[in-house]
Design goal:
With 164 residues, the chain is α/β, with parallel strands linked by helices. The protein is 36% helix and 13% strand. It has a 4-stranded parallel sheet, sandwiched between helices.
C-alpha cells in the first residue's frame, strides 16, 4: 500500500545521495518458493520506479531468504548489480548464470539449520565458471549469521561500488 499510494516513493526521493532501497526476501514458515513468480513481478515493479537506479539493484536475504536470493539472481542475473546471500544455498549446478554478478556470501560455521557447505558449494561453483564470489564464514556463529553479516564493515559500501 505504501508503494501504491506514493508515500514510500516520496520518502526515498527525499533522502541523501547514497540512497537505496532494500528488498530482502524471506519465506514464510512452512513454505518454499510458492510466491516466487510474485517476487519476480514485485522486483520488476520496484526496478522500474523513478527513485531506483536500475543499474544499482542489490539482492540479499537470510536463511530461506538466502536460498531465494540465490534463486532470484540465477533467474534474472541481468537485474542485479551485486548479491549478498546469507546462510542459504542453491542449485550450484546452475551457478554459471551468476558468473557476471559480484557475490559476497556469509555463513555461520556452526549453523545447524543450513549447513555451511551450502554456501561453500555455491561460491565454489560460481568461481569455477569464472565468477567473482567470496565467502565470509563466522567461526563461532550458528544460524543467526545475518547479525554479523549486516554489521560487516563495508558490506553496503561494497554493494554500492557495483553497478550493471
Amino acid at each position: 500500500d505504501l508503494v501504491r499510494n506514493g508515500s514510500l516513493l516520496k520518502k526515498f526521493e527525499a533522502e541523501g545521495e547514497k540512497r537505496f532501497a532494500a528488498v530482502v526476501p524471506q519465506c514464510c514458515k512452512d513454505t518454499w518458493f510458492e510466491i516466487f513468480e510474485q517476487l519476480l513481478d514485485f522486483l520488476d515493479f520496484i526496478r522500474n520506479e523513478s527513485f531506483i537506479d536500475e543499474r544499482k539493484v542489490y539482492l540479499t536475504g537470510a536463511s530461506m531468504g538466502g536460498y531465494t536470493s540465490w534463486q532470484l539472481a540465477m533467474t534474472k542475473p541481468e537485474w542485479f548489480a551485486a548479491l549478498a546471500p546469507i546462510c542459504g544455498g542453491g542449485m550450484y549446478w546452475n551457478a554459471a548464470r551468476l558468473k557476471d554478478v559480484p557475490i559476497w556470501a556469509f555463513h555461520g560455521m556452526l549453523d545447524p539449520v543450513v549447513f555451511v557447505e551450502e554456501s561453500v558449494k555455491m561460491v565454489n561453483a560460481v568461481n569455477k565458471t569464472g565468477g567473482k564470489a567470496k565467502l565470509t564464514v563466522y567461526e563461532n556463529v550458528q544460524h543467526d549469521s545475518w547479525n554479523n553479516a549486516y554489521a560487516e564493515d563495508g558490506l553496503f559500501d561494497w554493494m554500492l561500488e557495483h553497478s550493471k
